[in-house]
Specification:
The chain has 82 residues and is mainly alpha-helical. The chain has 3 helices and no strands. It is found in: Secreted, Extracellular space.
């Protein structure tokens, strides 16, 4: 019985001590996210050497709807299953 009590006590202390760094890390991440929102992304991309008109063109190309020139297949080939 005493052995069980010491194991339970050690486990409880371990859980309490290991949960403390998790909560402090969450506070640090929130501070970083708030700081990231204040940075102008266009200015940052320009400073990193990206061509903004090309990026906008690629963004428009990637967000096209289903009305593009892509053609879907006609379905399964019935001769394939015989």
């Amino acid at each position: 019985m005493a052995k069980y009590l010491t194991i339970a006590t050690a486990l409880t202390i371990f859980l309490i001590l290991s949960s403390t760094p998790l909560s402090s890390q969450a506070r640090i991440i929130q501070g970083v996210r708030a700081m990231q929102k204040s940075i102008d992304s266009k200015l940052l991309l320009h400073e990193l050497g990206f061509d903004l008109p090309k990026l906008k063109h690629y963004q428009r190309m990637s967000t096209r709807g289903p009305g593009s020139d892509r053609v879907s297949p006609g379905g399964p080939d019935p001769q394939h299953h015989f």
